[in-house]
What we know:
Blueprint: H1 2-22, H2 26-39, H3 44-56, H4 60-73, H5 78-90, H6 94-105, H7 112-124, H8 128-141, H9 146-158, H10 162-175, H11 180-192, H12 196-209, H13 216-225, H14 229-242, H15 246-258, H16 262-281, H17 292-308
Amino acid sequence: MFKFIKILNVKSKIYCGLSNINHYKYDEALKCFDEALEIMPDCKYAFHYKGNVYENMQMYDEAMECYDKLITDYPHYINGWICKGELLTSLKEYDEALDCFDRSLEINKENVNLLFSKTRTFVFKEDYDSAMKCANYNLKIHPEEEECYMWKAYIFREMKDHENAIKWYKKSTELFPSYQKGWLQLTLEYHEINKQKEAEKFLEKSIKLDKNGKHYLVHAILLKDLGKYEKALKLLNKALKTEKNVAIYYHKGKILEKLNKIDEAVENYNLTIEGYYSDVNNHVDHNESFDGKKYCEKAKNRLKLLQKN
């Protein structure tokens, strides 16, 4: 009975930590995971998620300590190897990352996620031949996995081979028509090669399949680029109901400018700037696609231009 209660308490702390991560409350998340470890010092999930939080806070040495602890104490816990390898990849330690993945593949040579991570590292290293070999092997043993087709397409995309990228994205949508990501990537590929009629057609399909609004922002940016301002604005307003993201405010400001709603545009540029500094204070990390500092500077420039006019 005592052991059962102990496990419940640990689970409660883990869920609390994950909830805080989702709300970018990283200090509170760390506190939850530390409390879980006080109850159960060998809890692998606490070390896993604690490492993730440190990564988000750009505290990479601390994150690596957590992942090293995981793979030392739990060598068969594949996520530990994946976390360490992907952190090494993000730090551009490609050979060390590949060594990490190879060691873990000795434990489970057909793990689909390990092979995805290894493929990704080869792509970042710009070793496309090795990336394609890895992707082909993964596809051969996991033909039922949507992402296997997506990775082949992505490698061609990185090689600027748009014809083959489109071929494999289309194959993905044919085999897995309800897999929204395939339609979105197909849209992006046509958009990049300036075939906007085709891009618009596939974009509509992607939007319809985006039931949980995960890609509202990307969809809205594409609609903006296609001149569909009202539709884009509608999606951004939906997005803001679930997440106050600086990129959303910035792109909303740009669209409102296009619609000549200058006062509302100014308001959203100010929200972009305020949101960025709030994120900095709360240790919120932004990925390369939606870098908060970049949008903050862009918003400041737009405000200066509008003030001159």
